[in-house]
Amino acid sequence: MKKFLFGAFVALATMISSCGSKDDKTPEPPQKTVELIGAWQMESSTIDGKPSSVSECTLKETIVFTEKTIERLSFKKRDGNCSYEKQDPLTYTLLGNTFTTKDGTTTFTITEGKLVIEGVYTDVQGNKKPSTTTYKRITEKELTALRAMEYKAPDYKKQLIGAWQMESATLDGEKLAFSECSLKDAVIFTESTVEELIFKKYDEYNCTYKKQEIKPYTISGTTITIEGKTVTFTVTETKLVIEGTGLDEQGRKRSFSYTYKKITEKELTALRAMEYKAPEKTTDPKALIGAWQIEKATFNGQPIEKEPCEDKQVDIYTANTVTNYDFGFNSNTNRCEFEKGRAVPYTASNGTITKKDDTPENFL
């Protein structure tokens, strides 16, 4: 209806003007470039004629006009502070009380030092309603203060570099139980490589790690790529959280999360000292001298179940004899007791022990 009335008004105006001199021209709307130039900060807004509530950060929104460009500083809360991300200025053309950029044409008015921009608000139901945003003119000093709030993306790689030790982990949201050794696991990031220290009881007694290949990695934002596989990470104070997905042994997709704590160079040095060193094997007969207690036994490669008290059995080697202390359980005293054997002469050569009147045995 509004469009129809506006059209009728234009037709009527044309008829009236045609009655006058044919040389008369419709005057162009006055240009307002000079009035627009400067910085304008949001003051208030309305939707459908009613005041609209805006956040503390939104009220910092600022538009900066030059003779040819428009720059918008749009603020939002990041990491607890209001900040804006720098955008490229847009060129504009001015015609009366409208300016046009590549994004469209906007209607404005300037009254008593206030800039009012008209627009259209679309609600969640898709309904369109008229809106206005009112800006106040600000000084160069005030603009400088606002520009100082530009958002600077964190240097994610700088946050990542360092040594991190395992603290906790989840699988599909469920917390995992870790052994004492797994809690020593560490990951070390340099500028371009990552190294893992994975601890286990390789000798069945002590938590140690085996040195692994140091791998290159790339980083994009908060995404790490290692050998074609990607994970995301966040660093908060002294915590590193690495998250990702992978397939389990049954081929099911699972999500995981590892939380690490940052450790010092001194703590990392202590962990590195726990590197697993495979025991040196020798067939030198001199290495036999001493006392040896049974630890485990196999037959045809299969473990032999120990008898009660058998794990206490000891063989004592001298340079040329071996004495066996054979333990057994005494039901009368309800304890393990040993019977000392006699000292048996032996010879050792090339990893073979031969006891007098006995079958040769191999040793390492």
Automatic annotation (TrEMBL):
Pfam families: Lipocalin_4 (PF13648)
Residue span(s) of domain Lipocalin-like: 36-117, 160-242, 288-360
Annotated InterPro entries: Lipocalin-like (IPR024311)
Domain of life assignment: Bacteria
Protein's name in the database: Planctomycetes uncharacterized domain
Organism whose genome encodes this protein: Capnocytophaga ochracea
